[in-house]
Design goal:
alpha/beta; Rossmann fold; 7-stranded mixed β-sheet; globular; single chain; 7 helices; shikimate kinase activity
Amino acid sequence: MAQNGRHALKNKPITTLSLMHLSILGMPGSGKTTLGQALAQHFNWRFLDLDAEIVARAGQAIPAIFAEHGEANFRQLEADALRAVVARPGPLVLATGGGTPCFHGNLNVLNSSTFTLWLDVPVAVLARRLERGGAARRPLLAGAGLQLAAALAETLAARQQFYSQARLRFAETREPLAALLPALAQAGFPAGAPV
């Protein structure tokens, strides 16, 4: 179901556990961390960035993990961290990495143990944000240079099949929290929480 062309709700069963965690999916630069922190503050829930969890567990920055151990090792660390995080009790807002849902059955884990939200941001907006220095910190985009928008479009094309399986798709607005809260309430998330 779509409302005002900004978000769409998937008709998927909602479990009690999925109402205890909200996970945000989306491309690098989509604002998952920023929106996640705002949602966590609004609901008075914990916020966790999966990339920060991986760094804490590995004792290395993500670019160093990629450089020294490769993407396959990083993806395994990511899958392990995700499973540990979603098993934690208590309500949590989780910002995932851009590629998290695309590997090791992570999307199934996310959809079965969290309420998934796809933060869908146009490639032109992503490129503008990442051109300000964000691309250099992201191993899969670091070498894109002037081809950043093309690299983002190609990456989104490959990942969209995963992102589109989120329970709720939300397109960026100027006031994302104010626009997102009614969409979450309409989707039944979180049960009993004030909006």
